[in-house]
Amino acid sequence: RSSSRHSETVLQDKEMAPENPEEFVTLMEHRLVAGNPVVYAKFASAIKTASLLHKESIINQCTRFKTYYEVQNTVFQQEPNVKEEFRRLYWALFLVRVNQGIEKTNQFELLYELFEKKIISAPAFKNMQSALNFLSKVRFFLHCHQKGSYKDVLSYEVRDKISQAMGYDLKTFYDHYYHQAAYPLKRYSRNLFWESTTQDTKRVKSLSGGFALNAENQIIFDKDGEEYLADNPHSLFRVFVWVAEKNYFISYPVTRAMEHH
């Protein structure tokens, strides 16, 4: 009876707290404990039903996390917080899971499924997988040397120990951390996040060379734009000019096409 009432509560709760989307997310990922497999299955089913009913609301509430991908949040730091790198990946993958109806929660498995479904390109998959593997090891060693609220911070006190444990000198370690792990992971996570929160493919302004602009100031493909790009890869240089001179943004489909070329 208790499980039945909990299921009904999940289904009937149409007003999720906008300021705390994380609370519902933990339920969607089945981070709960139940002693009875039947009770667990029913609760999980109710959560899935509720998440489908409120799909758009969940996505809209999560748009506030877009600040994680801003430039000022990825500048070079002497004492970076590794958890911040994982946070960017987490919300990007979460929104993709909601949009695509994917149930996997393991990030390594999820990246592979996104690659199999051609949601991310081969270069994106390779770089994200490599970055996730590297940062996971860094976080593991950090937790071996630090405790408490600062255990995810690559502090002055432990950075030499961490770099040695990873098999690098300190300079090489930081170079690998930022240029081969943190920055690539942030870039690809940002692309996935933008694609999941912005589905505007309506043209409001035509640009040259098979490109157009949507209401979000994102450069998108015009009609047959992808085919045009395949035949004229040099047209990509125009995209960089628009970004620099017009302050336009690049939509994920265009970014993904750039990776292919």
From TrEMBL:
Residues 72-181 form the PII-uridylyltransferase/Glutamine-synthetase adenylyltransferase domain. GO terms for molecular function: [protein-PII] uridylyltransferase activity; hydrolase activity. The keyword Transferase applies. Keywords: Hydrolase, Transferase. The keyword tRNA-binding does not apply. InterPro entries: PII_UdlTrfase/GS_AdlTrfase, UTase/UR. This is PII-uridylyltransferase/Glutamine-synthetase adenylyltransferase domain-containing protein. The lineage of its organism: unclassified sequences, metagenomes, ecological metagenomes.
